[in-house]
Amino acid sequence: MAKVELSQVLKQLLNHKGGQLPMPEPIISHVSDTARWIAAYRAMETRRPDALFCDPLAQRLAGEQGWTIVAHAPWFMRGGGAFIARTRLIDNLIVQSITAGADTVLNLAAGFDTRPYRMNLPPSLVWIEADLPEIINEKEQLLAGEKPVCRLIREKVNLSNQAALAAFLARGMTAGSTVLVVAEGLLLYLDTDTVQMLARELATPPAVRWWILNLSSPAALRTVERGFGAALARTPLKFAPPDGVAFFEKLGWTVRDVISLTHATIRFKRGPLWLRLLTSLLPESDPRNPKGRWGAVVRLERQ
Asked: Which residues pair with 301 in a beta bridge?
């Protein structure tokens, strides 16, 4: 059980003037800290009687650091509604892709994701996780003794290295396979050239059919950066293409699904009441608008 629990987080927030705790430096010193942070939100959701998903492993993975980041997050990210909605939306798209024929999932920068343990997946499904060696090692220690529901393989790879990425993709493709790629929470930490390289590499193997990712507009990314301030200095946010999903269409992908995170958060009743009322009056954001403030879950398909 983590030392910093949700009740403590809320108590600290309520007692602090202005509703947000001062940000310790550095609260996020490595990308693995963001994996703990998102795990804490999954643990919060799992405790709800109307939970959108159940992740009994999330509490263990979040640890004290995950709850600490929740306690110091900007006010507009405090409840984790958008992250919870993102998790559920990606769950849904994974199920749709498997139903449509995907028999292999490549989860890039898997972090502390637990879908191979918590989702109702076919036992024959091949799920391959890729991440940095230190993250893979820690995850294997934390989940030692747990049994996935499908065939799970973990690969230690630096996804920003083109040669390493190409070699990983070659290992992950088997004859006759239909591959779904998942990149949740990855792209915003990469520079544009690296994302272009990744998009081209993923579009090369004939087996790859779909790619699920999350995307934010430049305005939305700046809002998050201002909220966290210097706390993101060691893990800066980089990728938010002004042309949105059109960035990937130019690289050989067809956009199949674009789901607004704000509207999904309200639809799932995970946002505050004032946001629900405001959002109900607004149209869906244009994912190609360079001036808009939007975030979305996207599913791409090979052209």
From this structure: 210, 254
Ranges under pLDDT 70 in the chain: 1-30, 175, 228-234, 274-285, 290
State residue 262's pLDDT score: 87
**At CA 82, angle to CA 76 and CA 86, rounded to 5?**
160
Are 184 and 211 within 8 A, CB to CB? Answer: no
The CA-CA-CA angle for residues 135, 151, 213, to 5°, reads: 55
User: What's the pTM?
Assistant: 0.88
- In DSSP terms, which residues pair with 113 in a beta bridge? none
**Gyration radius of the chain's alpha carbons:** 19
Domains of the chain by start residue, with CATH: 6-12+20-77 (no CATH), 81-302 (3.40.50.150)
Residue 92 in contact with residue 184, Cβ under 8 Å?
no
